[in-house]
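Protocol step 4 of 6: structure prediction from sequence.
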Amino acid sequence: MNIGRTAILGAGSWGTALAVLWAKTGKPVTLWGHNPERIEQLANTRENREYLPGVTLPQSIEVTHDLAACADANLVAFVTPSVVLRSIAAQFKAISSNKSAVFLSCTKGIEHQSGKRMSEILKEIFPGQAVAVLSGPNLAVEVSRELPTATVLGCREPECAESLQQHLGSARFRIYTSDEITGIELGGALKNVFAIPAGVSDGFGLGDNSKAALVTRSLAELLRLGTAMGGNPRTFYGLSGAGDLIATCFSQHSRNRRVGEKLGRGESLADIVAGTQMIAEGIPTARGAYECARQLNIETPIIDQVYAVLYEQKPPAQALQELLDRDPKSERA
């Protein structure tokens, strides 16, 4: 499989980091963003000051706000917020001229109401074309600085998976492959939800013991819901499950953990959202995960409390106390 030009749709921190990573290995990359003024500034300064400050974009990266400039790309990576992936994919389909293009979802989320994963949306819009997913403990700022990182690429077509692995991987960005797309996507999406209470724990100053217990029980909950939604349990112990959960719940770079920390310190969700340019995917995903758990009749006490804090205005302290007041039981993963 011949992969020529790569188009990255989404010029946030992760999209920009991937563009820098892949351009430095000599690959032709086009980076698209929807905001003309921000994209013009990015093209002129070669720095994404709002989303990835201090990182210089190689001159070889073509920066554009014209979606048509990406129409003939061989590989199209979707790095948009989950809530707009469907609409951007539909816009791209209308102008796409490469019917053999491969689509790579780098977006982590669960669609509200439909409960669909991002690859399912892409498959729906681009039937008959190859779709792969990329997920793992991949903090954008560290990837852009070429700190050693591992990730997992999910694709049900072995030849396509191997080509993408060789084309996109490097000594500093180690890619593992898997044909288990469902678990990879669910692990990457659900960990964002659990990072919010991990941040609340930090905001309350509850210490490492409390946070370790919370993250461990989050993994058990991720396994229950993720398996019920079709994921392989083994996948959730890998890079896109346990690996991504650890990174997102503990890193100072994690947007979702930071949202939780601010909630724990008494800030309102409205003020937190208004004060940041970047979308914390755990917020919309909490709603999708809560809906899926109700439909499947899966016990998800942590997700339920996150949903209540985000969408029912429950005070974080009350949510925490209700988790602590749960009946004692035997440990089960």
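Step 5 (inspection) to follow. The domain at 6-179 is CATH 3.40.50.720 (Rossmann fold).
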